């Protein structure tokens, strides 16, 4: 993240030139020389004949004479390279350096632009083959029920794991029935992620591993036997996963269950005693037929892989009989799981299963693999019927939850002529979506940022379009996959490789309980070879006002709630990267340069990270070759006007700080679609008496409460225990704060994790509560980064047994920075008795007072306007009471731009003070209004100005 970008998006766009407003010249600050924040490259390296690109990420436009060269060590090996100005992305000016023509093989290369060097990287004959052992190492280290030092022979991967992640065999007592009265042998499988859960919807990755061997096993680098046991490691790993599926079948005859239970940050062998029948045995839960269908496809793929390895001589003849028996067992299991899923389609689908297309989509995976295994045409007929009935839609969920694209690519070579037509049509539409979405930024990343990192959908799409290239030879797909993997290997504005162990600067603080020190200050993180973390979020979960998108390799002990999601990994997140690396290894030096890029389509407004309110106008722009613009998700036709197409998104019903994506598509003459996306953040209300800011309503509402987490009892002074639970009392959803003290000196500390809130502009902390405990006393502290304040006064207060709202005046603490307020509640009992406090709502509020301000003399830059001519909007703010505005804001097309005083020294607003802002506007017809508040009266808005044409 660039140093200055954290605040740029919320502040609006500063004046870019001197502009005369009302006779006063508003002068832009003098331009400073641009600074290159970093030079980003693929830290995983490049293939000699492959596409090679890096980026300079700067805080402004670079001089035309900026140098660009390639070094090996300190020797210049490429004296110049051309910098392509890719414009502004996420607040940074981005320059692209393409050095694909350089094909020397070696190590210790660095791209240097303007004197700033990138991290070091290698150029190899086939760089992708360097990381295949890490891909299988990852799964071996995620194995449950085995000692990982046995599963991972010494030196197995070129990138070694951290010693502290090795553990003894864990969860040998999996699993008990839901009521704990019966035991099932469910040892084995892979831990889904770092929390040791084993989810039925994700164990399908055994099939993905088997399919990878089937697709690429003829490539010598793919059929490796790293543990020297006479069997390709891909077949070994697929069988390990399949054994778990067969245990599930033996236990239940067809249904598939989850086995959950995470425990603390300790190794899995310490979570339970490993003894069957004791109280700590993990229990099954969440039965789902989707997992059954996926298990069928996975077992069929494994049986195919085993037989292919025998036929190809990759399994020694002496072991062939044993392995053929395993293939038969897998085939029988595949048929049994399929029959169960097919006859129980109305059963619960289960977690981590297909959410688009339901059970038919999961069954498609099984039907295709069973047809390829058995040759039974009935499976193909069923599969093709599902495909024919599947409309193409943008997949809002990650592709590993949608078995369609993988299944279609698998079926295509043996499909009927009609089936081939349907499959190619669908997969071509997906390619169009991916190519036109990844051109939204210079980095080649799929534009699907949300609050669970972008990398999981991104690499899934990369694997899908690589299979498209394999089937149909579209070189644009092969190029996009290379660039897309460079993104996760460090070619991004954070200069971070999100693949553990790969690169000079790679993520260290993986969210995993294998790192037993993860929650300890001073922890250094771990390396789990090849693990891909989920990466950038739409926002920093610790700071809802942060820039978009956001990423930081942050140690786990500073995280709260769901903030681990940016460094989460899982066996299913890994699947796309796994498939793509093996596929690119098999592709070798295949050409990638031919093909016309998709027709450019852009959203001019809103831009990612901007704050919006009420009805937001979306401006889509493209060349004449794209028509029929439509607004997702329902593809509502947009209105062409003034050189742009517009549509409206109403955000008035969304909670403050909601992050959401807008999709737009246009149609080419051929009927193919081009896509683009942007993101917005819903602005909080301006602070007024009639717009209180709900922090927690204890019913999954409010800024903190919407995350679904309860408050935490961090600490108990002078012993005792505390607990918070969400419950219902007197028909209200409340937080129950409970203290069991050891003595009357005991104090229980409660906080909403480490969460802080921007309560700037609000005067009162208002808490609606009651306590049935006469001995209970409450102290509330509000702190910022530098100070803490006891807002309940010098001594704890008693709380009524009847519902009452207590208002604590924050104005009494002038040193408090309310924009980063952090709350702490302390309970203490006057005697050694239990105490309960029920809290219905925690809010920030204001009182009505004085007279409302007035906005007048609204104007904007006159004359013909163009996108290259920024528009200045001015207004006069007057308040008879002399109250300064909390904010004066321009709302242009629903996007909020904070305005600034024209004369900052003029603080007397009784006779009017002028405010202005200069913003660039995209082509089209715009509308705007200005709003303000003095915090003691309602929001004041000017009439809407319409018809502001920019051409």
TrEMBL record:
<keyword id="KW-0624">Polysaccharide degradation</keyword>
<keyword id="KW-0378">Hydrolase</keyword>
<dbReference type="InterPro" id="IPR004197">
    <property type="entry name" value="Cellulase_Ig-like"/>
</dbReference>
<dbReference type="InterPro" id="IPR001701">
    <property type="entry name" value="Glyco_hydro_9"/>
</dbReference>
<dbReference type="InterPro" id="IPR012341">
    <property type="entry name" value="6hp_glycosidase-like_sf"/>
</dbReference>
<comment type="similarity">
    <text>Belongs to the glycosyl hydrolase 9 (cellulase E) family.</text>
</comment>
<keyword id="KW-0732">Signal</keyword>
<dbReference type="Pfam" id="PF02927">
    <property type="entry name" value="CelD_N"/>
</dbReference>
<dbReference type="InterPro" id="IPR006311">
    <property type="entry name" value="TAT_signal"/>
</dbReference>
<keyword id="KW-0326">Glycosidase</keyword>
<dbReference type="InterPro" id="IPR014756">
    <property type="entry name" value="Ig_E-set"/>
</dbReference>
<dbReference type="InterPro" id="IPR008928">
    <property type="entry name" value="6-hairpin_glycosidase_sf"/>
</dbReference>
<feature type="domain" description="Cellulase Ig-like">
    <location>
        <begin position="37"/>
        <end position="117"/>
    </location>
</feature>
<dbReference type="Pfam" id="PF00759">
    <property type="entry name" value="Glyco_hydro_9"/>
</dbReference>
<protein>
    <recommendedName>
        <fullName>Cellulase Ig-like domain-containing protein</fullName>
    </recommendedName>
</protein>
<feature type="domain" description="Glycoside hydrolase family 9">
    <location>
        <begin position="130"/>
        <end position="581"/>
    </location>
</feature>
<dbReference type="InterPro" id="IPR013783">
    <property type="entry name" value="Ig-like_fold"/>
</dbReference>
<feature type="signal peptide">
    <location>
        <begin position="1"/>
        <end position="33"/>
    </location>
</feature>
<keyword id="KW-0119">Carbohydrate metabolism</keyword>
